[in-house]
Design brief:
By secondary structure, the protein is of the alpha/beta class. Helix content is about 15%, strand content about 20%. It is built from two helices and seven strands. It has a seven-stranded mixed beta sheet, covered by helices on one side.
């Protein structure tokens, strides 16, 4: 980050700022636990315009309503059952899969099955965009 000066500002849990015209609030402190033998890793999430939440890999539950959740569906800390419970607790209207680049087609279909209409229910619409696709979020 050398040379970026005022373009970069460190933020932490509970702080708010504006970036490119968006109101942003920081949530969380630590990455989800990968294994007890691995030291805690700092990681936070961001709520954008009180509507879209990117939890980072912290999987923090924000203290406010979230319309759209960007859900990291795969990583060394991740278990599908934990993700189902996490989405239920956040209770968004829509959930978009992110952080799934290490999954093959079978893995994304399997995760989508559990988090989508064929799973036990997460209380939100589940979406997964293909590489290069985009969606407008209101």
């Amino acid at each position: 980050m050398d040379g970026l000066g005022a373009r970069v500002t460190a933020v932490g849990e509970g702080e708010a700022f504006t970036a490119a015209g968006f109101d942003v609030k920081a949530y969380g402190t630590w990455h989800a636990v990968i294994h007890p033998d691995i030291p805690p890793i700092g990681n936070i999430g961001f709520l954008i315009d009180d509507a879209l939440f990117h939890p980072g890999d912290a999987l923090t539950v924000p203290d406010t309503t979230v319309d759209t959740l960007l859900l990291p569906v795969h990583g060394p800390w991740s278990a599908t059952g934990q993700l189902i419970d996490y989405v239920r607790e956040v209770a968004p209207r829509d959930t978009y899969a992110i952080h799934d680049g290490a999954l093959n087609d079978i893995g994304t279909a399997m995760v989508g099955g559990f988090l989508g209409d064929n799973g036990p229910g997460i209380g939100a619409r589940y979406h997964r965009l293909t590489a290069g696709a985009s969606v407008d979020i209101d």
